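INTERNAL AUDIT FORM
Audit reference: QA-55
Scope: verify that the stored structure record matches its stored sequence.
Auditor: D.O.
Record contents follow.
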Amino acid sequence: MSTIFEKVLSEAEQAALRTEQLLRECEQILEQAEYQRQRVESKKVSDSVNSENPGSATAGGKRNKNRAANMAAVQLLMDAYPEVFSRDKVRPLKIGIQEDLVADDKVSRTKIKRALASYVRSPQYLRSFQEGAERIGLDGQPAGTVTAEEAGHAKGKLQAMQDARRERIKEQAREAKQKEKEERLSSKLDQLLTLNSRN
């Protein structure tokens, strides 16, 4: 009896591990899709900004324009330092790498600040923060390790991002449901008005 129970428990644990792995893979796919969507939006925004008067941008347009500028700045760093900055193999950066970048003088200070702010807030970057993981310096060499406190902080930020994403999805679903309800009500009112006008 005990071996059957152990076997069922082992299978349940394996199923839980597979489920966790699938969830992580789904999260990564969602993030990649979001990144691709942002790139497409950035392209559209930069195309429309180039064809319109820049002073007429809306708040959403400014946000998209900033996102496009952030992504362009990150791309500059990835082009200038492919050993260090990557979308495929993201690693924790050396503490103080901003000063190294400024001193190296390949990219302007403002673009460095913009790029680093965007890069270190990405889910891929936060996921790379595992306790003991090697940090990478501008030369591509190890430059310190991630502490338990840093790993915990990154995990908390990731969780907050996931919670915010779930909340946005719930809010969008609530809004869609409300809109559908209003459309049904409007349709019924139109039907009633039509019936009353015939009588």
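Auditor finding: record pair retrieved intact. The two ends are 77 Å apart (CA to CA).
Action required: none
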